[in-house]
Write a structure and sequence with these properties.
Layout (H helix, E strand, L loop, with lengths): L1 H13 L21 E6 L11 E5 L2 E15 L2 E12 L7 E12 L3 E12 L7 E8 L2 E2 L4 E12 L9 E11 L1
Antiparallel strand pairs: 1-3, 1-10, 2-3, 3-4, 4-5, 5-6, 6-7, 7-9, 8-9, 9-10
Amino acid sequence: MKKLLLLAAFAVFGLTGVNAQEDNSDSSSQTSKGKWLIEANTGNAMLGSTGLYLTSVDGDTAYNIGLDGGYFIMDDLALKAGLGYGGSSAEGALSTFSYRLGAKYYVNSMIPVTLDLTGASIEDANENPMWLGVGAGYAWFVGKNVSIEPGLRYNLSLNEDFTDEGVFQFNVGFALHF
């Protein structure tokens, strides 16, 4: 399912126009001070997520929907916040509300590096996860206002009562810049 979603996203964004990477040289690039960023990322069902995912195993469907938004306080540096909601079709399944606060810096206006705090509130849970995440990737600008950003991320657990294990993940982000 993830491969199909990724393929569909590449097809849709590929039709939006030619690669605008060369257009980043002017003072009004996608990552300039005063611009806004809205992004959706592929998610990970293992932790609180502001991303998108849908999985189905043996008739049990798990989902999450979320978005991140940010504002560029200076060229190439955005402060970000995100929200997400997820659940499952399994009997007795709990719902999860997730949040994220952090920063994203674009090295040379095309290599995003992130640092953020992600947490989740799980319905009726005694313990909730909290993660410190760091990631890096590449921003491929496929249009004047659209980028596809594959990247790697490591999430360090900050609540050892929930889990003491970190989570390493590969994400693909889809961002709108305006």
